Amino acid sequence: MNSVYINGGKTYCFSSREELIDLAFAGKKSLIAVNAEKILHTTDKTRDLFIRNIGFSDGIGAVWALKKKGFKNAIKIPGCELWLDIIGASWHDKTFYLVGARQEVIEKTVATLQSEFPGIRIVNYRNGYLRNGLEYQDLINDIVLRKPDVVFVAMGSPRQEELIAQMQEAHTAVYMGLGGSFDVYAGAVKRAPDWWVRNNLEWAYRLMKQPSRITRQIHLVKFAWMLMTGRY
Ligand code: UDP
Q1: In this structure, is residue 210 part of a structural domain?
Q2: Nearest 5 degrees, angle CA 12-CA 27-CA 67?
Q3: Which of 55, 111, 142, 171 has the greatest number of CB atoms lying within 10 Å of its CB?
Q4: Which atom of ligand 1 is nearest to the CA of 102?
């Protein structure tokens, strides 16, 4: 299997999404979306999670890094598409648990999944706004009780990765961090039109629509500079 270390975090280069999905189910591992921001902000905790699980190139910054390390065929695998590919490939025989986003968004997400995949077994779900330690404990207890095969966590980083690390200790499953993907799926946030996605300019579209993201997008520039100057 092709993988390299970027800032100490392991990232894989897959030839297809099927290959990635097969590997996740075979090893019951978690899928960690890698982008410039996460590479720059790797901590000992998230690095460990990356190493134990499957980092995939969700952002163009991660694709640049893989290419620089010799994987010329590296492609971007957007997390907001991958989670639906996972459901598409496995919904007939796997069970799912969803955590994340605002209450109305998670409810719409579940309802839309149930109409798109009739009979899908969503064993439970909850919004991503956990208020205290007790709510975290209740969630983990519920995961242990319901034993889902796949758990999607859409709470933004590093919050979702930290929660995944805790849940993994309590119950083995395929976990995936999804960022704002439920918002996109439920129609609360619009994804960039195809042209922007195809030309690897999704980040520019998001910046145009939400200028406040500049403080986050600047990481891509910083990361590109560090790559060019051989720091990664
Ligand atoms: N969110 C959440 N719990 C929180 C804070 C945020 O569930 O305590 C959700 C929020 O509603 C949104 C997502 O996490 O759906 C954040 O998406 P963002 O765009 O920041 O993530 P990215 O895709 O950029 O990683």
Answers
A1: no
A2: 5
A3: 55
A4: 11
Q: Which residue range forms the structural domain that includes residue 38?
A: 1-77+216-232
Residues 9 and 42: beta-carbon distance below 8 Å: yes
Q: Which two tokens stand for residue 214?
A: 């500049």
Statement to judge: residues 26 and 87 lie in one domain: no
Residue 63 has pLDDT above 70, yes or no: yes
State the Cα–Cα distance between residues 143 and 140, nearest whole angstrom. Answer: 5
Give the CATH number of the domain where residue 161 resides: 3.40.50.2300
Residue 68 lies in a domain: yes
Report which residue type is found at 20: L
Are residues 159 and 220 both part of a single domain? no
Where does 171-213 have alpha helices with state H? 181-185, 194-198, 202-209
Q: What is the pTM of this model?
A: 0.91
Q: What is the mean pLDDT of residues 98-109?
A: 98
**Residue 204, pLDDT above cutoff 80:** yes
Pocket test for ligand 1, best of 183, 190, 216 (most atoms within 8 A of CB): 183
